[in-house]
Amino acid sequence: MGRSSSVIGRGATTDPPGYIRIHQGGCMHEHCQLARRLGDILRDHRENTRWTLQRAARKSHISASAIQRIEAGKVTPRWERVRAICDAYGVDPTETERLVDLAIKIREQPDVRFGGVHGTDFDIYPYMEAAAEQVTAYQHLVPDLLQTPTYAQALHGPRPGIEVRLARQSLLASRPDPLRLAVLLDESMLHRVVGSDRTMAEQLHKLATDSERPNITLRILPFTATPAEPPPSPFAVIDIPFEPPAAYLHGGACGDLVLDTTEHVTRFRTAIETLEQTALDEESTRDILRRTATDYEHGDRPRPGHLHLVEPPPSTDSQHPPIEQISR
Known about the structure:
Residues 42-96 form the HTH cro/C1-type domain. Residues 293-328 are annotated as: Disordered. InterPro entries: Cro/C1-type_HTH (IPR001387), DUF5753 (IPR043917), Lambda_DNA-bd_dom_sf (IPR010982). The protein has helices at residues 33-49, 53-60, 64-71, 79-89, 93-107, 125-131, 149-156, 162-167, 188-191, 197-210, 262-276, 282-297, and strands at residues 4-7, 11-14, 22-24, 27-29, 116-118, 134-139, 180-186, 216-221, 235-239, 246-249, 257-259. The protein is α+β, with helices and mostly antiparallel strands. Helix 1 (33-49) runs parallel beside helix 4 and helix 2 (53-60) packs across helix 3 (64-71). It starts with a strand and ends in a 31-residue tail after the last helix.
């Protein structure tokens, strides 16, 4: 039998085998978004092999109808089945372990306190990012999608999966309609030395170059800015086609959180709008990135709060195009 869950005012309900329920926005869903995401990923791997459901069934020793239900997100497969499917498709071992972990996580009783998914055991963010058409974020560090290999290695250490982490950067270029990425970078990112001065110089030059791409927008929030509210912890608002948008909070005392109620998403969109009022414009940001990179190359680390601006930072009443409205 599947896990049981209760709804306030309705008493207990029993889920069909292979299903879990999650409280989301005040209602109950027969299977959570994570199950659909797992199914999407497994279907993508099958299609990459150009296999039919029937051939996948023969190779994995799992019925075609079962694979079809898994891909549709109608059931949450046991981790053994996920491993068998991945092995049949020749999926990279690191990716296989991530998908196995995801299957285990989905089958656990979800934490419903925040009206979303809460947990630190598995990082679902890369899979949400891969399905997204736009990610709008506020960050204290360089986002994974824009990191150089040396910056990523210095930041994460000798951990497995660095190659997979960097491979995700293809989302910004490989698709006919690449991911649109808009990031407000806290000035602390410029001063928090990750690795060496050379690593920082290389990374900042890359950011300046990447920001010239039409689907990438970067703006720095300087220490001298006086936003109406203190800057929050790092977060991202993720827009996925045919799915409700979600807000993803990175780290913190409670671990990573996914919040997908309308109230929560609206709150974080408003936070972005508030922060962008005092952020530097795109051209000033590029100039700061290049100048700061040059400082690191010369061994002259920048001083917090002393950015070398070509022009004064925009006033709070200046009208910048909203960071989420990026031309394709």
